Amino acid sequence: MTMTAFILAKLSPEESGMDLLNEIRTDEFVEEAFLIYGAFDLIVKVEVKNPEDLDSFIFNRLRKVRGVLDTATCICASC
């Protein structure tokens, strides 16, 4: 069984959104990722096996990408 989450990210205006998007899309857990308009700049759909994999993706991968300023995670209750 997998766990689905959507992660919203705010990006630095100094960084290229497309470069960040392309970098994030290379991660094994990322199913889809899009630049968006509004309070956040990026939405990432991830599929993970457990909460530990989600933590690892967020803290060890996404938040370490240069230009990612802030994140908010929405874990799906049913998919």
Question: How does this model look, in words?
Answer:
With 79 residues, this protein is of the alpha+beta class. It has a single domain, classed as Lrp/AsnC effector binding domain/regulation of amino acid metabolism (RAM) domain (Alpha-Beta Plaits). The chain is built from two helices and four strands, in the order E-H-E-E-H-E. It has a four-stranded antiparallel β-sheet. A hairpin with a 6-residue loop joins strand 2 and strand 3. It is globular and about 40 Å long. The N and C termini lie close together (11 Å). The mean pLDDT is 93.
Mean pLDDT: 93
Integer tally of domains: 1
Can you count the helices? Answer: 2
CATH C-level name: Alpha Beta
CATH-defined topology? Alpha-Beta Plaits
Shape descriptor: globular
Alpha-carbon distance between the termini? 11 Å
Percent helix, as a range, is: 10-25%
Assigned CATH superfamily: Lrp/AsnC effector binding domain/regulation of amino acid metabolism (RAM) domain
* Main sheet makeup: 4 strands, antiparallel
Report the sheet-strand fraction: 35-45%
Secondary-structure blueprint:
Elements: E1 3-11, H1 17-24, E2 30-35, E3 42-48, H2 51-61, E4 68-75
Antiparallel strand pairs: 1-3, 1-4, 2-3
Note the main attributes of this structure.
single chain, 79 residues, alpha+beta, Alpha-Beta Plaits, four-stranded antiparallel sheet
